[in-house]
Amino acid sequence: MARSPPSVSVIRRPPGPLTERGGRLLAVVLVGCAGLAVWVLWAAGESSYARYLDHAAATQAGTDPVVVAVAFLASWTLMIVAMMVPTTLGLLDTSRRLFRARRDRHLLLVAVTAGFTAVWAIFGQILLAADRAVHEAVAAIGWLAARPQLIGAGVLLLAGGYQFSRLKRTCQIATRTPSSFVLRRWDGRASPWRQAWRIG
Questions:
Q1: Is the pLDDT at 39 greater than 90, yes or no?
Q2: Which of 89, 112, 148, 151 is deepest in the core (most CB within 10 A)?
């Protein structure tokens, strides 16, 4: 008696960001934004305002801190768009599929992207303030000015400590998959724009 061949179950994966028209369009938009940001940064570096993008020139005594902060915020935000926004394709595509039945779906995607960019812009300002504080400390403390290697060592120790911290493990668990991250923060009922911003 001939045996029938064993049945093979085919597990179909959910459509990825590059297998749907909307996902492909999203990828093209992100790459286009990244390319435009790179071009703007290059053009600024070739302009008369390039000195405000130079760390050594921007931290010289007498430089207007407000001008430095604005120039840094602009260049930092462009850098985020160029380097980091494209890495959010998985998050944005998950959000796109979740919002697809809504009329305001495109604006909600903008809110997610704006939230992501705003967090990194704020973090950049914190780094700028810390950098200025280090320069002021070096100018005020002679033994620290004579031992600049201590600053680099301190930064490495902080970065290394974060790698073994509970905060890093918590962040990794919370953002392991875009789907679970988004679904825990979205119900689409009360204040959908605020929810989309918080996802970002």
A1: yes
A2: 112
- Structural domain contains residue 5: no
Q: What is the pLDDT of residue 9?
A: 40
Region for residue 9 given its phi and psi (left: phi exceeds 0; alpha: psi -120 to 50; beta: otherwise): beta
pTM: predicted TM-score of the whole model, two decimal places: 0.74
Q: Residue 136 and residue 138: Cα distance in Å, rounded? A: 5
CA angle 119/125/128 to nearest 5° reads: 145
Asked, for residue 124, whether it belongs to a domain, the answer is yes
Does 7 reside within a domain?
no
Alpha carbons within 13 angstroms on the beta-carbon side of residue 166 total 0
Task: State the residue range of the domain holding 77.
Answer: 21-199
Q: Could you report the per-residue pLDDT of 70-90, keeping only the tens digit for each? A: 888 888 899 999 998 888 888
